[in-house]
């Protein structure tokens, strides 16, 4: 999406600011006029604002009330229409044509959580950094329209456990196609945007798709860099 | 929130349909009100135009 004129978003207390990962996801995401779009965990709301300007029917979700208030104010100041919904990921939402998510992905043991709970929410990916991503992927198929697509930020995760090159998954259970549509190398961290299409649901049993299959469990990619901790410097608030 | 958001929302607990009750509207935006689940009767507040679909014990 075109981000011209949207990069002067005000920094807000308790809200994850626009960073390289924010930019890469918003640039790579494609929407169309009238298409239903949701930005999950919107934070600053950059992708939501860009999608609203492109004419999409936009919903921004976050658990963080400061983030939602900020997106609303930014939209109003720019004459853009969108709706904020305070919820966990996609809970309480039906189907969308396009879903975008920049998840918290820092491996975070409980004792390393950010003292600001709202900031921590934007960073804390659980002990392996992928907990929120796994939960999102297991819920995602049930929230996409027939030809819906999702854009997911995937980051190499710093770890001292291995020196192998981190790569995003080529296969994600629940989707027939996974494609890297953008990538960027930063000092000590590499970012990708995955486009997921061809969602397949388990059935109408009432259980959330993926509950029986645990799709996230198969995402056993080796996510390591040779510069442990460097990525955190990018992701952490200054 | 705008009225057509109702097409996109459902109860996060039981996936039931929600009923909208408006207490304050400014132009085309619902600024305050409630969403009530037609199946499980859980009530979700709308404050500052933002529906809060978090479970009742996680709303603050």
Structure report:
The complex is a heterodimer of chains A (238) and B (60). With 238 residues, chain A is of the alpha/beta class. Chain A has one domain: Rossmann fold (3-Layer(aba) Sandwich). Helices cover 22% and strands 24% of the residues of chain A. In chain A, helix 1 packs parallel to helix 2. The radius of gyration of chain A is 17 Å and the shape is globular. Chain B is globular, with a radius of gyration of 11 Å. Chain B has one domain. Chain B has 60 residues and is mainly beta. Chain B is 0% helix and 42% strand. Chain B is built from no helices and four strands. The two termini of chain B are 20 Å apart. Chain B has a four-stranded antiparallel sheet with strand order 1-2-3-4, with no helix packed on it. At the A-B interface, helix 3 and strand 3 of A face strand 4 of B.
Regarding quaternary structure, how should these chains be classified?
heterodimer
Share of residues in strands of chain B: 35-45%
What are the segments of chain B in which pLDDT stays under 50 over at least 5 consecutive residues? Answer: none
Range of strand content of chain A: 15-25%
At CATH's second level, what is the architecture of chain A? 3-Layer(aba) Sandwich
Q: How many helix segments of chain B?
A: 0
SSE order of chain B? EEEE
Task: Tell me the count of domains of chain A.
Answer: 1
Low-confidence runs of chain A (pLDDT<50, min 5 residues)? Answer: 160-165, 204-218, 220-234
């Amino acid at each position: 999406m075109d981000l011209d004129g949207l990069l002067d978003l005000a920094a807000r207390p308790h809200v994850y600011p626009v960073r390289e990962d924010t930019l890469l996801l918003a640039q790579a995401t494609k929407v169309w006029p009238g298409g239903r779009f949701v930005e999950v965990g919107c934070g600053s709301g950059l992708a939501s604002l860009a999608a609203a300007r492109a004419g999409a029917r936009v919903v921004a979700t976050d658990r963080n009330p400061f983030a939602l208030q900020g997106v609303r104010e930014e939209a109003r100041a720019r004459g853009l229409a969108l709706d904020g919904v305070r919820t966990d990921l996609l809970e309480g939402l039906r189907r969308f044509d396009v879903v975008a998510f920049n998840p918290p992905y820092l491996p975070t043991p409980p004792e390393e959580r950010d003292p600001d709970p709202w900031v921590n929410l934007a960073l804390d990916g659980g002990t392996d950094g992928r907990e929120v991503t796994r939960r999102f992927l297991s819920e995602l198929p049930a929230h996409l329209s027939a030809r819906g697509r999702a854009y997911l930020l995937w980051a190499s995760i710093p770890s001292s456990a291995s020196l192998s090159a981190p790569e995003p998954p080529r296969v994600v259970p629940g989707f027939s196609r996974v494609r890297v549509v953008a990538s960027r190398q930063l000092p000590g961290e590499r970012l990708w945007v995955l486009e997921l299409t061809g969602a397949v649901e388990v059935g109408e049993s009432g259980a959330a798709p993926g509950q029986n299959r645990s799709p996230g469990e198969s995402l056993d990619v080796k996510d390591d860099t040779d510069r442990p901790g460097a990525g955190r410097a990018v992701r952490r608030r200054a | 929130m705008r009225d057509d958001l109702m097409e996109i929302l459902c109860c996060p607990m039981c996936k039931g349909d929600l009923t909208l009750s408006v207490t304050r509207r400014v132009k085309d935006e619902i600024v305050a009100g409630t969403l009530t689940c037609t199946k499980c009767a859980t009530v979700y507040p709308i404050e500052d135009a933002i529906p809060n679909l978090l479970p009742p014990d996680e709303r603050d």
